[in-house]
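Project standup — Tuesday

K.O.: blocked on the structure for the chain from last sprint. Re-posting the sequence here as requested.
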Amino acid sequence: MIPREPAPHSSSTEETSLAAAESRVAELVEWLATADERSLPPWDDSDLTGEAETAAARARGPVLPGLELTADDAREFGRRWHRSLAIRAFIRLAPASAEPLFAYSAAALLAHLGAPVTDPANSLNLVPPVPVPAAIGHTLAYEHKLAAESLGECVALVLSLAAEYTPLAPQALKVKLVGEFASGFATGLQERVRDEQTALTTTMLRLCHHESAGAPQRYRAADAQAPQAVLLMNERGHIMEANPLAQDLLNRTLAQLRTLTLVQLSSSAEDRAQIERALGTLRENTRARRERACAEIEFRIHQHRQPPRWIRATVGYASTGQRSINVLLDDITLQHGLENGSDVNAATGLLTETAFTSRAERVLAGAPGNATLLTIRLAGWAQLGHALPEHLLTQLLWRISTRIHAAHELTQYHHLIGHNGDDVLVLLHQLTDWSTVIRLVKQLSDWLRDPVRIDGHQIRLQPRIGITEARPGHTLDDLLRCTRRALHDTADTRELWTHADTGTDEDARRTLDLHAELTTALDTAALHVDYQLIRTAQGSPVGVHPTPYWTSPDGTRHDITEIADLAGHTGLLTTALPLVLERVTHHTQAWHHAGWDPFILLDMPGHTIHDEPLLDTLTATAAHLQSGQLHLAIPARSLTGAPAILSRLTQLPTATTPIQLAMTNFLDDHAPIRALNTIPWATITLADHTVAALTHAKTWPTSLTAIIDTAHAVGARTLATTATPAHIEFDLYLTTAATNPDDTMPPALSRQHRPND
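H.V.: unblocked you, prediction finished:
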């Protein structure tokens, strides 16, 4: 033990004090020498050693010891970056602007490598938050328009930056940084190219629209009878003669016209291609047919300091054996302006529904064998209508129209573009071959899926395209019916485009008949509800699954699930689901009086969960249910690509609402991990075929056990629609047989109280 301190001496002399101090030191030395080491705790320096090593590694950092990175280092590398790129590719920035940009980028990348540069004056303007590597690459490619060939050089320079300036940084960190930078650069490059193409096409279309928009007003006072003019051409299309009326109409002298061809008179590539096709068709006719052969073409001509003029040219041989071609010209500027002024929606660039229908019918009546209809369905358009204001939706349609125009192959076909409900319609005619259609559909599928930026919003569409070929006797309604049936086919919901098969017409007609029967059942209150019981592993009934159905005139029962997709597209489910829930609420009240309160698993087929007004209606209808009694069953695939609905679902189950959430078809379709982690699921359902596949897998029972454990980890119960597999128990089981409301209650309760349907 430590010796007690002696009492202080009363002497005040320095010698006495010094002697006392020496005595005290001697006593302490003696105590330390005689202390029992076993009374002291053992000394363990392993933790201290590990902490010291960690601290040393952290202190060492990615830079060589003794070195410090400054703003001058970043500027020097920025100059090197600019010089290396300028040698190999065009850079639109001046050196005075480019070098600070690359110095800023180098400093930001070094910060992510754990080596921030020292810049007390903030000369690099690198303020938190520091942009991530992907954002740096995206900015260089998108905003500063670095060329595609710059990507390889930029990646090499970023690798050099990491190797030279941060040699001690972890290799995994360097690889991650380079990968994110390259990914951001590639994404920015793709978006910039797409936006530039969109801007060019938009400018061209707007110019064309503005040039012709005022034509009716400018020509309202013109003579209603257009002057007749005649040209004489050789078979190669060169103009040989033109009467005075033709010279006046074309605003050129005879000498000027003799240096031109009819093709050169037109002002657009599409018109020139049309004239060349017409002349080629005439030349292909035999001599015996030339007298009857003719072609009618409409094209525009531009004149100096005058509005564009529309010309109709009737081209044909004058008599048998004549090798020259006569061309009769009419000025149809006023007529064309009046026809098209009200046909095209100036805000969207699409034909109105009436104009598209009339023009399409004319095309199909003339040459149905060379026409194809594309029906482009924009998934989630109804939800965009709720989320975006009208002017943004109009701009979005204009962008869609622009991308379709940009994909147009002038020499392969003509096209009409219109809008019908949630669908954009494209009628291709005068097709040269079917491969043209396939190329166009693939291109449209890719282009329309690229994100669209409008007023700070980034919108990513999910288009699906239905295709059908026109045959003699087909009307536009026939083609629309074929493409829409193809898009409704549940077997093809994952396909980007679907070719309507005429062999399935009988099944499709049957589906439409069932759709009509469901409409009648809703109008006449003939939609009924049966139930499938949901039991625990011990067999106790704890829930019900409503199965809405109606009876056909021939007495056949049909469940609403048979046409759920079609009913969802046409809006019938929006009407049917609240009615079903009203029936279920009535039955649950009767069961409650009998002492039974099962939870209700109500299916939300297709994308009905995205219909916010429908959610509001169901919430109001379920107000009489107990808290948590209603479980909305949401298909996993309807949660993909919809961050807005995830936020709404997160807020839906509360202590004051009767609604809980259940995920169905888990593992059958992709569901974002965010949906699994953030939404409070009450139940997760696995379909019988999924359970069967997992049961027969080599990993049985580990894989199925892991899935059940995952559901439990997020606070959900597991529900199976199959019999109990060996050694594995789900929390709940759904019986396959449906029973009426009276037989749904446990027998002891049903004898006391029977609900009326």
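K.O.: great, moving the ticket to review. The first strand starts at residue 229 and ends at 233. The chain has a mean pLDDT of 75.
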